[in-house]
What we know:
- The protein is an all-alpha fold.
- It has helices spanning 2-28, 37-48, 51-84, 86-101, 104-114, 120-142, 146-154, 159-197, 203-212, 216-253.
- It has 2 domains: 1-30; 39-253, MetI-like fold, CATH 1.10.3720.
Amino acid sequence: MRRWKTVLRGMLILAFWLGVWAFLARLVDRELLLPGPWLVLRRLLRLMGAGDFWRVTAASLIRILCGTLAAVLAGVLLAAATCRSRFLQAVLSPLLTAVKSVPVASFILLALIWVGRDVLPGVIVFLMVLPIVWQNVAAGIQQTDRSLLELARVYRFSPWQTLRRVYAPETAPYFLAACRTSFGVAWKSGVAAEVLTVPQKSIGRRLFESKLYLETADLFAWTVVVVLCSLAIEKLLTAAISRARLRYAREDREP
C-alpha cells in the first residue's frame, strides 16, 4: 500500500511540473524559445524510432559507465589507502581539493590536449566522480565502530573477514550515498564533455547540433534522454548494491 502511495505521489508531482511547463510554453507561445511538453514528447518518440538514436545513446552510456565504474573502484582503493596511511593522506589531499575546485570546463580543455575526444568524456567522468567516492568512503571508514574492530581482533578475524563483516556493513550507507550523488554528476560532466568535444556518436553532439540549428524541441528531447538515463542507471545500480548488501548480511547470519 505504501509503495502505491509513493508511486501516486510521484505521478502527481510529475503532472504538476508538466502542467507548469505547458502553462509557461502557452504563455511564451513561441516554440523556438520554449516548446511544450507534447511537442517534445512527439519529437522524442520520433527520435527513438530512428536506429541512430539507440547507437548514440549506447555510445554515451558506455563512456559514462566506464568512467563511473573506474572512479568508484579507484575511490574505494584510495579511501582505504589514505585511511591507513596519514602520510599518503597528506600527499593526496591537495589532489582531492584541486579536483573538487577546478571547473569542469577547465578539465575538459586541459585534457583535450592529451586525450582523444572519444575517450575524453570517460576521463572527465572519472575525475569528477573520484573525489565524491573517495571522500564518502573515507568518512565511512573513519566512522567505523572501534568496538567492532576490537571484537574482530579478539576473535582473530582475518583481514578478509574484517573487511566483509565490519568495514563493509559500516561503510555501506556512505558508499550508497556516494553512488547516488556520483551518477548525476557523471551524466552532467560526461555530457558537458561531449558537448565541447563533439564525438561522432554521442548525446552531447546531438545537443550541440540542436542548439546550433535552433532545433529547440530536439534539445529538450535529448535533455529528457539524459535525465531518464541518469535516473534509470542510478535506480538499477543502487538496487543491485542494496540487494548484494542484504544477501551478504543474510549469509553472515547463517551458521
